Amino acid sequence: MRGEATVLHADLDAFYASVEQRDAPALRGRPVIVGGGVVLAASYEAKARGVRTAMGGRQARDLCPEAVVVSPRMDAYSTASKDVFAIFRDTTPLVEGLSIDEAFLEVGGLRRIAGTPEQIAMRLRERVRAEVGLAISVGIARTKFLAKVASAVSKPDGLLVVEPDREQEFLLPLPVERLWGVGAVTAEKLHRLGIRYVGQLAELEEATAERLLGKATGAHLHALARLRDPRPVDTTKRRGSIGSQRALGSHPRTAEELDLILTQIVDRLARRLRDGDRTCRTIVLRLRFGDFARATRSRTLGFPSDRTSVLLTIARSLLAAALPEVTERGITLIGISLSQLGRSDSFQPELPIDWEDGARLDTVLDAVRDRFGATSVARAAQLGRDPGWSTPLLPEHE
């Protein structure tokens, strides 16, 4: 017995761009690009002209000169995400978030009180549209992998059920790019081998797939092509790291500008730590140079912290060490990620505690921003400057 299709994959459509169109009626029906230097999101009207996420801003404008380019508003996206996830959790307690705009939901135990998985998905889509004002696509299948593929195939604004008895009929004719884990490099390798469809990969022996693609990748993709994905919806996973980045475009940046941007990023991440009662031990600086090469610099603290002043001091030291290379090569992106996350109540801080004043200041600033909004109070260095709220490292799945 193969089981029943009870896993939902719910994925907001062109999330950032859709929030912009929701909040500005004049943008509805028009091509919208979020982000100037690098495309963070594109509306379906812009996608139809070839604009894609992570594309350079100049290339995107060449493809779609009539597009409206808007700056990202991370607070608006975060609020919309929280509203949608509240609907998810009101639908079922078994929710596994994947990113800011997508999640798996297990609804197998709800038939008697809420109806079939398809009926549940229909109501969920109606609620998201009515209560949050956004379109969401939902795939329903027996496994997480197939549900995710189904939601992607159903876009935009669709609902697709893959019943167990037609899984092969659905999956095998699809391009290999639909497999979870096939990026541009793996797709190109498969194409060179004459493998363009999932069915062709499924026809191979597992040992052959491992030899052609590497042991881990080959085994993983071959299993998916053969419809093997035993992973349940996992509601216990906690994110192993958080991060933000900002695309800077191609024009030169002064050390003062970079410090301001870095400060904004760290301020925001430290608040996210405290909001989640989390701490971190490792701070990672991520850079992309003018030649598009990437580099990382990291440092691990002696003890976990959620203090803005502590994290900012480390981040500034990492940036200072990288400035000579930045000056020589230029910079197009800067980001910070915080890893080795832990619970704030699970460690004893070192003594003497030399950051007490900073802790009190962080608490006051958090309270003000909670009540009056993220931009209600800022550092003096930011006055009169572009707030440039940073962009999460979590990719937007569209």
From TrEMBL:
It comes from the Bacteria. Binds 2 magnesium ions per subunit. One of its GO terms (biological process) is DNA-templated DNA replication. One of its GO terms (cellular component) is cytosol. Its cofactor is Mg(2+). The record marks 16 as: Substrate discrimination. Its main location: cytoplasm. Belongs to the DNA polymerase type-Y family. GO terms for molecular function: damaged DNA binding; DNA-directed DNA polymerase activity; magnesium ion binding. It catalyses: DNA(n) + a 2'-deoxyribonucleoside 5'-triphosphate = DNA(n+1) + diphosphate. Residues 7-183 form the UmuC domain. Keywords: Cytoplasm, DNA damage, DNA repair, DNA replication, DNA-binding, DNA-directed DNA polymerase, Magnesium, Metal-binding, Mutator protein, Nucleotidyltransferase, Transferase. Its EC number is 2.7.7.7. Mg(2+) binds at residues 11, 101. This is DNA polymerase IV. PANTHER family: DNA POLYMERASE KAPPA, DNA REPAIR POLYMERASE UMUC / TRANSFERASE FAMILY MEMBER. It is found in: Cytoplasm. The keyword Signal does not apply. It comes from Leifsonia poae. The active site is at residue 102. Poorly processive, error-prone DNA polymerase involved in untargeted mutagenesis. Copies undamaged DNA at stalled replication forks, which arise in vivo from mismatched or misaligned primer ends. These misaligned primers can be extended by PolIV. Exhibits no 3'-5' exonuclease (proofreading) activity. May be involved in translesional synthesis, in conjunction with the beta clamp from PolIII. PROSITE patterns: UMUC.
